[in-house]
Amino acid sequence: MSPTRQNTVKSQSKGEKREGGVGFAIRSNLLKDLEQPQSINDRMMKLRIPLSCGRFVTVFSIYAPTLSANEENIHAFYEKLRSSILSVPLNEKLVVLGDFNARAGRDNSAWNVLGRFGIGKVNKNGLHLLQMCSELGLAVGNTFFHHKLKHKVTWIHPRSKQGHMIDLVLTRKSDLQDLCSLRVLRGADCDTDHKMVRVKFKFRVRTRKRSAGVRVPPKIDVGQLKQPQVSQLFRDRCSNIYFEGSWQSLREGLYKTGVDVLGFKRAKKKLEKVYRAQKAELQKELRRLKDTWWSNLSEEIQASYERKDIKNLYGLLRQAFGPQSS
């Protein structure tokens, strides 16, 4: 831990060889409210940050092996990262950021963990990353923001001078709405050949409606009063209620009569949760099919344009935009 005037840097590195090394730079005035960062290994650290309503966000800082590393080391890295992410409770927010040394590409039709604004082609390390994201329900945040290419590229290959997006920010797909902005700051001098990536989050935390263990009393089924026979029976029974002149006594008598005559409302069926889950899955599949349809139609339009097949081109455009109004 090394303090500066306003910040404290917490890092983890591997002895003198320094093949790996990760860390967090934290404002010193925030340290009293934070748990101590945990070192996982020389390529991973995590920090748990409290939010409101007793919720937390767990942030992982990582440095993945390069493409030239042997496959065993790459596999071991992703297995450790996968198990570390799985240890985070599902009700906690999650952010994984760092140098992944991986090109995820832009094929969001094949990989729904990508947005529409990826760059380049996927490489071997990128496949490891995409497979892990698919398994764990994560999304590559960099690919969900539309910026100029120079504000996406985080590293430039020294020989080919080709720009790549390898410094990435991952979060749960269900929490993508928490991600406000993400872009490269080209002017930041960080004493490295990588560009600085700035990401802004606005974590949305839902308040708990009731504490665990509080049982809601069942409700009387007043809907039964719509039936004339039941309504008449209820009135007759109420007229015979004996009470001792106190409101409490009358209340208890009315409640007991209501329970005897009307009964309780039926509890919601347990299948309702299953129905909601299946409905959500169906909507997800419909969105995927819609995206696939648009992607295929776009490719057909492009192919017709390149073949100069004007008739087919206009037919496809009518499918996309509908008939022109006169």
Automatic annotation (TrEMBL):
GO molecular function terms noted in the UniProt entry? catalytic activity
Domain of life the protein comes from: Eukaryota
Q: Which residues form the Endonuclease/exonuclease/phosphatase domain?
A: 58-197
Which one Pfam family would you cite for this protein?
Answer: Exo_endo_phos_2
Query: Which InterPro entries does this one have?
Result: Endo/exonu/phosph_ase_sf, Endo/exonuclease/phosphatase, Swc5/CFDP1/2
SUPFAM superfamilies attached here? DNase I-like (SSF56219)
* PANTHER family registered for this protein in UniProt: BUCENTAUR RELATED, ENDONUCLEASE_EXONUCLEASE_PHOSPHATASE DOMAIN-CONTAINING PROTEIN
Recorded protein name is: Endonuclease/exonuclease/phosphatase domain-containing protein
Q: What is the lineage of its organism?
A: Eukaryota, Metazoa, Spiralia, Lophotrochozoa, Mollusca
